Fold this protein.
Amino acid sequence: MKLFLTIFTGIALFIIGATTFSFINIFADRYAEKLPLMKGAITCPNCGREKKFYEMIPILSFLFFWGECKHCGVKLSRRGFCNELIGGLIAELLFFRFGETMSLATPCRFSTVLDISLDFSFYKLLGLLTVFAMFAMLDLVLLVDARTMEIPNIFNYIIFGISVFSMLTMPGIGWLSHLIGFVCTSLPLFLITLAIPGAFGGGDIRLLAATGLMLGWKLAVLALFIGIVTGGLYGLFMLVTKKLKRGDHFPFGPYLCFGVGIAAVAGTDIINWYLSLAKPA
């Protein structure tokens, strides 16, 4: 029975994650190209032919047709395929990470991962849906910002709403920590931007505020640190390879999203590891 539940749950979660992130990729493409977001058929970007339902099955359709349009044979973008694969894996990861405990403040453990299946709890299900919704929105922000260098306000408002809801469904972080997380990273960046216009985008600042409310101040600071380090390494690489010039801008949102994701899943472990380095041997 346990083996059957393991297999069934794993397959179901992967399908849900891949399908969700497939729709997110389509939504992000339409937003970037200024197309109607909820209307119109999904078509091939080359020949314009409407895709059949079997050409839009997450992951499988890309593999079955060798990443090409069935009609004109043009190579399709691998971004959608990779995003679907990542979505399935994220759904699995979040279930294994939060299936036992819904708190972001607890260390990352993968024990009793079928707790929600064997001992169903609607409250735990709400927590899982909350954290998955956050990751889905982070994916949307990442895809849109990478293509447009813009984080729409509506995205940050939705993330803010998810964060408020998470304060009810994901206990373990005190209310004061949540409130400090709302301002502890966004306010300094806002002040820096006032002093140095263009240093950070308004969307980035609002993203930090919205996600910081969910993470609490400790994880919010870690998320910003990871975002700055990874974004800085990317910028340095682009400068060294002369793909960017000094003073050029690049989207910072994707690196903030990466930092938030890492902090949410394993932030407590990273902080505990760092603090252990300061202890005397």
Notes: Residues 2-32 form the longest helix (31 residues). The mean pLDDT is 86. The chain has eleven helices and no strands. Residues 150-281 form one domain.
